[in-house]
Every structure is written in structure tokens, then in C-alpha cells.
UniProtKB/TrEMBL annotation:
InterPro entries noted in UniProt: Cyt_P450, Cyt_P450_CS, Cyt_P450_E_grp-I, Cyt_P450_sf, Plant_metabolite_P450s
A GO MF label: monooxygenase activity
Alphabetical keyword list: Heme, Iron, Membrane, Metal-binding, Monooxygenase, Oxidoreductase, Transmembrane, Transmembrane helix
Protein name: Cytochrome P450
One cellular-component annotation, GO: membrane
Membrane topology: Single-pass membrane protein
Cofactor field: heme
Organism: Flemingia macrophylla
């Protein structure tokens, strides 16, 4: 070999060794520059895994996440579609993010393609980014509809819906040996939310019409959300899906706008004995940034959100609770016993109905509802959150605009908090003097989320659940039909429902 080449190579080797030694010495003297790492990303192959994740049901997603969390810790990233989502399984991290650092974690990711059709460009409470529009819409719902005094104005409607439900269950139980209850529960909740939305009782035909257009959209929402990924590509590849979404929305507008316009005309002659409905409050509302009233599309979007948010969530929870009361007759008996002792049997001969004002005395009933929400939260995740700036959580960087979600169902089953987490034991809530469902001090479970984006309807939901559970078990004995069973397997629809709907034998209690 040429001498100059040998010299050159050995010179290079020398320089390299020197540099390495210098770096080593230097790095032991001064700490490395602080770069915070992003959460671990298990098994990611660009393009392939994001598509695979998109195709998974959320039950499969949950199972996979569980194994990832066991392996990689409580914070992991999954690429779903074109967007990485950070999943948080730990309740104290959820508290740090959602409650202690609420302002940073209260955004929502944009859904650029479908938003124009489904949410009037993010002008619904659940889809609006954290800002003035969201605040106005949310405050309107919270203070104009869900405030105590306003809730009281709907007690007549609740009683009326309850009586219809009891009658329907009675006649169903007389004609059939076993009753599929979810249909009745869903119908009852829907009628109630419809009344609150439009301020009047609608006839059966109309209710069925609206239920149809609402359900067809609701059950396909997950499939439509895929259209937000690579919009230019999916718009072509999934043409049929696009057209279906547009058609569903058009049908929804046709049905809902009839009611909205009718209410608008009536508004000019509103007097004292007419209840104020959600549409009435929306018709008066002004968007703060645009300084204008809501247009018809936005009214449809917001009514749609109101109906969806309050119907399936509550009827799902109700079915899960009733399923457990059937599976565990001693719990059902104890609810009845409490009502008998606290409310008294003698005074209620002519009326079989437990009144709303009596509910606060029923501690065990409350515990049953809470246990139901812990063991079977209707949503196993919250809606996706977006962070507004780079933030460090558990030593991991959550980048600006990053999407974050929380494993609601997992937290309710955490064995460090809940003894025998898979059991159904309402007593566990009895020692706790007033369990805090909002998780302000500490999150033990979060069926309604936590922080600034917490479900604004949680009070109404709890009222509905307590009122209906109390009256359903007070009026009927709920039993497993002969040869039947209560199967607690789950299935993802809009919410996580019973895979095999509850079928029961119902007989009058009194
Ligand atoms: C058992 C019944 C219910 C459950 C389990 C439930 C649960 C939830 C959850 C988990 C969220 C997402 C929170 C987050 O993203 O961090 C949410 C949001 C929401 N819920 Fe509920 N909910 C129920 C009933 C209701 C009712 C009755 C209403 C109103 C009529 C309602 C209205 C809303 C709205 C508007 C949002 C969006 C809030 C925002 O983004 O600021 N929900 N709910
Ligand atoms: C909130 O976020 C900021 C910014 O990343 C961080 O410095 C702070 O420690 C966080 N607070 C908590 C309680 O996690
Ligand atoms: C975050 O989102 C906003 C609004 O969508 C955008 O203007 C901004 O460039 C994004 N920032 C980063 C760092 O992705």
C-alpha cells in the first residue's frame, strides 16, 4: 500500500479516537443537553400500522393498549390514521393533565374533512376548540338548560315519560315471558331529551322519524371519521361513504329543521307557562367571534349533539345497572328495602312513583348508580383532547397540537383503588361521604371525564339514572327468565353496550 495512504488512514483514525475521547470526557463532565423524549411508540411501520389501527374496533384497541401499558408504562403513543394519539392509563397522570393543567389539555383535535358536514366547522360544544365559541356554547347549555332551577322545570316531563315507560313494560311483560328492555329504555330517554330540546311532546310517528335519522348517523360516525385521514385520498377511495354521510346529514336537516323552525315561530309568543327548551336558548344565542346568531346548519348540529350526548349514554348505563340488579338479586332487594324504609310504603298507596325530591335520601341507590358507572362506563375513552402547547407529562414530551386520550374503563378497574374491581359492590361507595364524581381533588374513576371538558350533563345523567332505577325496581320484580342468564360481555356501538341485550322476566312488585 502507498505510504501516503497509510499515513492518511492512521491520521484519520487518530483524529477519530481523539474526538471520541474528548466527547466522552466532556460528556461525563457536563450533563447531556436536556431533550425530553416523546412517549414510546410500540410497533410502528409507517402507513401500514396506522391503517391497521384504523380498522380495529375500539375493544381490540383497548386490549392492545392494555398489553402495551403493561410493557411500556402508563403513557404510550399509537399512530392511528395520520395522527399520533397518546393514551394515558394512569389516574394520577390523568389528574395532573386534565385537572391541574386543564388549560393546556382542553383542546380538541380538528377533523378537517368531515367537520364541514358533521359539526358546522367545529361549532358544537364537543368539537369546538378551546376558546370563545366553545365557552359560549357550553355556558349556554350549562346555565340555560342544566342549571338546577331549569332542570326542575322538566320534572313533569320526566314523570310523564316514566309513566309511559312503566305502562309499556307492564304490557310487554303481560304479553311476553321475557322482555328486551333496552328498546324501552332508549325510547324513554330519547323522548325525554326530545322534550327538553324542542319543548313539546311529539307524537309517536315523529319520534320514530327523528330516532331513525339520528341512529343511522350515530352508528356510522366511526366509519365516517376515517374520512378525515388523507382527505384527498379517502375522498376518492371512499366515495360511497362520503355520499352516505352527506345523505344522512341531509335527512337529519330535513327532520330537525321542521321542528326548529316551528319553535322559532312560537318563540315570539312565549309566555310564562311554556317551558324554555334548548332550541329557544340557541335561537337567542350570539356567537362571540362572528357577532351573529346561529344559522340553521349550526342549530341542527347543536340539537343533534344534545340528543346524542344525552340519550345512548344514559340508556346504556341504565341497561348495565339493571343487568347487575338482575344478576345480583340481593342488591335489587336492598334498593327496594331502602326505599321502603326511607320513603315509607304507607303514604304512597295511590302513587307508585318515587318522586325526584325523595331521591337525595336514598344513599344506597346512589351507590348502585356509581358502581354501575365504575364497572360499566358507557364510554371507555373520553373524546380526544388536544394540547395547546408543548407540555411535559411523566417525563415525556406531549407535543403542541398532540392528541391525548384517557382510558376511562381501565381506571375504574384499577386494583390499587378498587378492591375486587370486577365485582359489583355498591357498598364500597357508602363509606365515602359524598363521592366526588368530578375528580377535582383526586381521580378514582372518570366516567364523565374530568377538568374543563368534563361532561356538562353529569348532573342530569345522574338524576335520570337514579330516578329511573328507583322507579323500575320499586314497580317491578326483575328476574332472569328461566333457562336464561345475564351475560356481561361488551360490544362497541356509539357507547359500549351489552353484547347480548338484557332479556328479563318482569312482574309487578305491588
Ligand atoms: C351517563 C350519561 C353520560 C355519560 C357517561 C357521559 C360521558 C361523557 C364523556 C366521557 C364526555 C367527554 C369528556 C372529555 O372529553 O373529557 C362527555 C362530554 C359531553 N357530554 Fe356527556 N355523558 C353523559 C350524559 C350527558 C348528557 C345527559 C348530556 C347533555 C344533555 C351530555 C352532554 C355532553 C356534552 C355537551 C359534552 C362535550 C363537552 C365538551 O367538550 O366541553 N352528556 N360526556
Ligand atoms: C403543567 O405543564 C407545565 C408545562 O409543561 C409543566 O411545567 C408543569 O409541571 C405541569 N404541571 C403539572 C401539575 O403537571
Ligand atoms: C397547531 O395547530 C394550529 C391550528 O390548527 C396551527 O396553526 C399550528 O401551526 C399547529 N402547530 C404545530 C406545532 O403543529
Amino acid at each position: 500500500m502507498e505510504a501516503w495512504l497509510i499515513t492518511l488512514v492512521s491520521f484519520c483514525v487518530c483524529v477519530c479516537v481523539c474526538v471520541c475521547v474528548c466527547v466522552l470526557i466532556f460528556s461525563t463532565l457536563s450533563p447531556p443537553p436536556t431533550t425530553v423524549k416523546t412517549p414510546p411508540v410500540p410497533s410502528h411501520i409507517p402507513i401500514i400500522t396506522p391503517i391497521l389501527w384504523l380498522r380495529k374496533s375500539s375493544t381490540e384497541l383497548e386490549q392492545t393498549l392494555r398489553s402495551f401499558h403493561a410493557k411500556y408504562g402508563p403513557v404510550v403513543t399509537l399512530w392511528i390514521g395520520t395522527r399520533p394519539t397518546i393514551f394515558i392509563a394512569d389516574r394520577s397522570l390523568a389528574h395532573r393533565a386534565l385537572v391541574q393543567n386543564s388549560s393546556l389539555f382542553s383542546g380538541r383535535p380538528k377533523s378537517p374533512a368531515t367537520a364541514a358536514v358533521l359539526s358546522s366547522d367545529h361549532r358544537s360544544i364537543s368539537s369546538a376548540s378551546y376558546g370563545a365559541t366553545w365557552r359560549t356554547l357550553r355556558r349556554n347549555l350549562a346555565s340555560e338548560m342544566l342549571h338546577h332551577s331549569r332542570l326542575a322545570s322538566f320534572s313533569g316531563a320526566r314523570k310523564c315519560v316514566l309513566n309511559t315507560l312503566l305502562t309499556r313494560l307492564k304490557s310487554a311483560s303481560e304479553s311476553r315471558h321475557c322482555v328486551r328492555v333496552i328498546d324501552h329504555l332508549q325510547h324513554a330517554m330519547f323522548c325525554l331529551l326530545l322534550f327538553m330540546c324542542f319543548g313539546e311532546r311529539l307524537d309517536e310517528g315523529k319520534v320514530r322519524d327523528i330516532a331513525r335519522v339520528q341512529r343511522q348517523m350515530l352508528l356510522r360516525l366511526r366509519r365516517f371519521s376515517v374520512l378525515n385521514f388523507w382527505p384527498s385520498v379517502t375522498r376518492v377511495l371512499c366515495r360511497k361513504r362520503w355520499r352516505e354521510m352527506l345523505r344522512f346529514r341531509r335527512e337529519q336537516e330535513e327532520v330537525l329543521l321542521l321542528l326548529i323552525r316551528a319553535r322559532g315561530r312560537k318563540q315570539t309568543v312565549l309566555n310564562d307557562d311554556v317551558v324554555v327548551s334548548y332550541v329557544d336558548t340557541l335561537l337567542r344565542l350570539e356567537l362571540p367571534l362572528e357577532k351573529r346568531r346561529l344559522n340553521e346548519g349550526e342549530l341542527v348540529t347543536l340539537c343533534n349533539e344534545f340528543l346524542n350526548a344525552g340519550t345512548d349514554t344514559t340508556s346504556t348505563a341504565l341497561q348495565w345497572i339493571m343487568a347487575n340488579l338482575v344478576k345480583y338479586p340481593h342488591v335489587q332487594e336492598r334498593v327496594v328495602e331502602e326505599i321502603r324504609q326511607v320513603v315509607g310504603e304507607g303514604e304512597r298507596e295511590e302513587s307508585q312513583v318515587i318522586e325526584e325530591e325523595e331521591l337525595h335520601k336514598l344513599g344506597y341507590l346512589k351507590a348502585v348508580v356509581l358502581e354501575g358507572l365504575r364497572r360499566h362506563p358507557p364510554g371507555h375513552f373520553v373524546l380526544p383532547h388536544a394540547v395547546s402547547e408543548d407540555v411535559v407529562l411523566n417525563d415525556y414530551l406531549v407535543p403542541k397540537n398532540g392528541t391525548v386520550n384517557f382510558m376511562v374503563a381501565e381506571m375504574g378497574l384499577d386494583p390499587n383503588v378498587w378492591e375486587d374491581p370486577l365485582g359489583f359492590k355498591p357498598e364500597r361507595f357508602l363509606n365515602d361521604e359524598g363521592f366526588d364524581i368530578t375528580g377535582t381533588k383526586e381521580i378514582k374513576m372518570m366516567p364523565f371525564g374530568a377538568g374543563r371538558r368534563i361532561c356538562p350533563g353529569y348532573n342530569l345523567a345522574l338524576l335520570h339514572l337514579e330516578y329511573f332505577v328507583a322507579n323500575l325496581v320499586w314497580n317491578f320484580v326483575w328476574k332472569i327468565p328461566e333457562g336464561g342468564d345475564v351475560d356481561l360481555s361488551e360490544k362497541q356501538e356509539f357507547t359500549v353496550v351489552m353484547k347480548n341485550a338484557l332479556h328479563v322476566h318482569i312482574s309487578p312488585r305491588i
